[in-house]
Design brief:
Elements: E1 2-3, H1 11-15, E2 21-22, E3 31-32, E4 72-77, H2 79-82, H3 92-107, E5 111-116, H4 119-143, H5 158-178, E6 184-189, H6 192-195, H7 197-212, E7 216-221, H8 244-254, E8 259-264, E9 284-285, H9 306-318, E10 322-327, H10 337-342, E11 349-351, H11 361-377, H12 380-396, H13 398-412, H14 418-424, H15 428-444, E12 452-459, E13 462-470, E14 473-478, H16 484-495, E15 498-503, H17 508-522, E16 531-533, H18 540-543, E17 552-556, H19 559-568, E18 582-586, H20 592-604, E19 613-619, H21 626-637, E20 641-644, H22 646-650, E21 670-676, H23 679-689, E22 694-698, H24 702-711, E23 716-719, E24 738-740, E25 748-750, E26 756-763, E27 783-785
Parallel strand pairs: 4-5, 4-8, 5-7, 6-7, 8-10, 9-11, 14-15, 14-17, 15-16, 18-19, 18-22, 19-21, 20-21, 22-23
Antiparallel strand pairs: 1-6, 2-3, 10-11, 12-13, 12-27, 13-26, 24-25
Family: In the N-terminal section; belongs to the glutamate 5-kinase family. In the C-terminal section; belongs to the gamma-glutamyl phosphate reductase family.
GO cellular component, one term: mitochondrial matrix
GO molecular function: ATP binding; glutamate 5-kinase activity; glutamate-5-semialdehyde dehydrogenase activity
Length: 793
């Protein structure tokens, strides 16, 4: 049974812009958009993505990241998604959001189909209203009074509700899709339409014709005439249409769709009933994993439960259609759940036929947690021994490491910019420096974990201690820097933290061998799994959502990477800096001999580093002096491109290119020069345009220098020293996990101390709080006790 419900697009969108053609293939005449014309709308707050959509149907997608290539998509809306909580009427706001997302994907050139519930609920609302109205009129006539008694509403038969609600439901969809200039067509089916070969061909042809004309088919079981579902009625190899789950699966396979999205009122599949303490969402479900799932009761409305959804999903997967089951009712995610799934984000449960070779990232997180706790219980000497062994392996296995790094460099040639290639490159000297740094970390780790910071006698025989402990599980995400891996691993080992590492694919060969060496070192004390390298196709944004497994995220890479992670992290603190806009102020009393050396080293020694100089502030009195000329000549020799700040440009007849922004991190041989009148103006400029990373004053006046050191509010503030000293190794920390511009917990180069937190230990003898009340027998002493001296050897 096919009924056509379609109207032309709203006048404000396309009526005056596009030619419309008269449809001759449908039962009603209507105006439809030509299939050759695709317009990308700008009306939505959902981001558009541009991806190739051509794909040969046959096998389902193996990984979530491939879902962005899906062209033909079926979205199944469960009864719990479409209906209100009282099961009488539709959830209009939720439905409007779903229509918007479907419209976004349709306008990207995809072919969208909806399988929707809701007719029964919509009809129930209408019939209840009619019954109440009828009863109230009769009662008013019989009683002769305005006042109404309580009226009992009879149980409404589902088929009657469906008959009353079907037209209204479709009219609602029509009105919503019209807002986006998209036509919709209604198709009602029963099980017989799939079992009768002629009807199947007719249905298939109708659906293909609608998709060809850029129309969204809205499919539903004809609940007004459909017989009750029969248990175990599936034919061999064919799923029987007895609810909208099986209908969606059957439709997806018949139409050779790429993706089936099943929206319900739960997040996906769980290994235990949702809501129970031990329940964990199953990210990827494989055929044969049914034994790992405990099925609960069915949805509060509708005919199918989760078991029916899994059965339908597996049948569709076998037919070559990828499937995701997700929550379409949660107010925080329902507004973008469909587009998130298509973009490959970790939403709901993804059904895949391809099992990964190694553990999932969730399993790696659990291994890192368990391994980290074992690591924290080792003696300090044992942790130091692991780090010493890793340092030895870096030099002993030098040839294998450099060979792997050579493969990375060859594959990156032509794809990465020169500064990134330099970061990617390893050398013998780099490995030797790494080994030295690791030995420094081993030496400083002797009393890091479990060190007593404070002791207090609360009362007689009641003593309190504050001691250092590991943070937990760290996630370190780094780009193009394989030398970062052993540094961070050593700091995690020294501090007793579990560690998840996510490196860039451009350094995959180098990271792999360095991680193997790290695990070899950990194995000497049986804690191999404490450090994990994430090699799956996990997107960084998905990793940032693992708030139950990760305690701290540390990004190492470009400012854009750091900003993206800070934005994506959900409930997990991020330690790092988004920008390294470092300043150097050259005072009027600066030494001529020192200035050029400091500027050259800060800018030219490694311009891609986050602690490289980006803005040079020069006191106005130095303009047109030999010192100023020497600075400019040196920068010219070093081939540094100069950008003039507004004040500096005003002093010049022929100035360099004026800076577009005074808040720029160049990361290359480029430098902004600006003029200031005093040290106070330099400080004000730094506070306005800097990133609180590293700032320097060059002067021979000690009073001016101290004023600068005390008043500049940055993580690192130097006097007559290069900005490049802002580094954990150069500070004597052995290494660093990054440089933090945060004001909480750790700031500046973050070494071993920054990866520790504290806990309180209270030792008593049957003490209770009531003993310290006004009429109690004990009094608080709160005496400070001596703290054991720290071993500084």
């Amino acid at each position: 049974m096919l009924s056509r419900v379609c109207r032309s697009g709203s006048q404000s969108f396309t009526h005056r812009l596009l030619p419309w053609v008269q449809s001759t293939t449908l039962s009603r005449s209507c105006r439809v958009q030509p299939s050759a014309i695709r317009h990308v709308r700008s009306w939505s707050n959902i981001p558009f993505i541009t991806v190739p959509l051509s794909r040969t149907h046959g096998k389902s997608f193996a990984h979530r990241s491939e879902l962005k290539h899906a062209k033909r998509i079926v979205v199944k809306l469960g009864s719990a998604v479409v209906t209100r909580g009282d099961e009488c009427g539709l959830a209009l706001g939720r439905l409007a959001s779903i229509v918007e997302q479907v419209s976004v994907l349709q306008n990207q050139g995809r072919e969208m189909m909806l399988v929707t519930s809701g007719a029964v609920a919509f009809g129930k609302q209408r019939l209840r209203h009619e019954i109440l109205l009828s009863q109230s009129v009769r009662q008013a006539l019989h009683s002769g009074q305005n006042h109404l008694k309580e009226m009992a509403i009879p149980v409404l038969e589902a088929r009657a509700c469906a008959a009353a609600g079907q037209s209204g439901l479709m009219a609602l969809y029509e009105a919503m899709f019209t807002q986006y200039s998209i036509c919709a067509a209604q198709i009602l089916v029963t099980n017989l339409d799939f079992h009768d070969e002629q009807k199947r061909r007719n249905l298939n042809g109708t659906l293909h014709e609608l998709l060809r004309m850029n129309i969204v088919p809205i499919v539903n079981t004809n609940d007004a005439v459909v017989p009750p579902a029969e248990p175990n009625s599936d034919l061999q190899g064919v799923i029987s249409v007895k609810d909208n789950d099986s209908l969606a699966a059957r439709l997806a396979v018949e139409m050779k769709t790429d993706l089936l999205i099943v929206l319900s009122d739960v997040e996906g599949l769980f290994d235990n009933p949702p809501g129970s303490d031990d329940a964990k969402l199953i990210d990827i479900f494989y055929p044969g994993d049914q034994q790992s799932v405990t099925f609960g009761t069915k949805s509060r409305v509708g005919m199918g439960g989760m078991e029916a959804k899994v059965k339908a999903a597996l049948w569709a997967l076998q037919g070559g259609t990828s499937v995701v089951i997700a929550n379409g009712t949660h107010p925080k995610v329902s507004g973008h759940v469909i587009t998130d799934i298509v973009e490959g984000k970790k939403v709901g449960t993804f059904f895949s036929e391809v099992k990964p070779a190694g553990p999932t990232v969730e399993q790696q997180g659990e291994m890192a947690r368990s391994g980290g706790r074992m690591l924290a219980t080792l003696e300090p000497e044992q942790r130091a021994e692991i780090i010493h062994h890793l340092a030895d392996l870096l030099t002993d296995q030098r040839d294998e490491i450099l060979l792997a790094n050579k493969k990375d460099l060859e594959e990156a040639e032509g794809r990465l910019a020169a500064p990134l290639l330099k970061r990617l490159s390893l050398s013998t000297s780099k490995l030797n420096s790494l080994a030295i740094g690791l030995r420094q970390i081993a030496a400083s780790s002797q009393d890091s974990v479990g060190r007593v910071l404070r002791r207090t006698r609360i009362a007689k025989d009641l003593e309190l201690e504050q001691v250092t402990v590991p943070i937990g599980v760290l996630l370190v995400i780094f780009e193009s820097r394989p030398d970062c891996l052993p540094q961070v691993a050593a700091l995690a080992i020294a501090s007793g933290n579990g560690l998840l590492l996510k490196g860039g694919k451009e350094a995959s060969h180098s990271n792999r061998i360095l991680h193997l060496l790290t695990q070899e070192a950990l194995s000497i004390h049986g804690v191999k799994e404490a450090v994990q390298l994430v090699n799956t196709r996990e997107e960084v944004e998905d990793l940032c959502r693992l708030d139950k497994m990760i305690d701290l995220i540390i990004p190492r890479g470009s400012s854009q990477l750091v900003r993206n992670i800070q934005k994506a992290a959900k409930g997990i603190p991020v330690m790092g800096h988004s920008e390294g806009i470092c300043h150097m102020y050259v005072d009027s009393e600066a030494s001529v001999d020192k200035v050029t050396r400091l500027v050259r080293d800060s800018k030219c020694e490694y311009p891609a580093a986050c602690n490289a100089l980006e803005t040079l502030l020069i006191n106005r009195d130095l303009l047109r002096t030999p010192l100023f000329d020497q600075i400019i000549d040196m920068l010219r020799v070093e081939q540094v491109k100069i950008h003039a700040g507004p004040k500096f440009a005003s002093y010049l007849t022929f100035s360099p290119s004026e800076v577009k922004s005074l808040r720029t991190e160049y990361g290359d041989l480029e430098l902004c020069i600006e003029v200031v009148d005093s040290v106070q103006e330099a400080i004000d400029h730094i506070h306005k345009y800097g990133s609180s990373h590293t700032d320097v004053i060059v002067t021979e006046n000690e009073k001016t220098a101290e004023f600068f050191l005390q008043h500049v509010d940055s993580a690192c503030v130097f006097w007559n020293a290069s900005t490049r000293f802002s580094d954990g190794y150069r500070f004597g920390l052995g290494a660093e996990v990054g440089i933090s511009t945060s004001r909480i917990h750790a700031r500046g180069p973050v070494g071993l101390e920054g990866l520790l937190t504290t806990k309180w230990l209270l030792r008593g003898q049957d003490h209770v709080v009531s003993d310290f009340s006004e009429h109690g027998s004990l009094k608080y002493l709160h005496e400070n006790l001596p703290v054991p001296q720290r071993n500084t050897n």
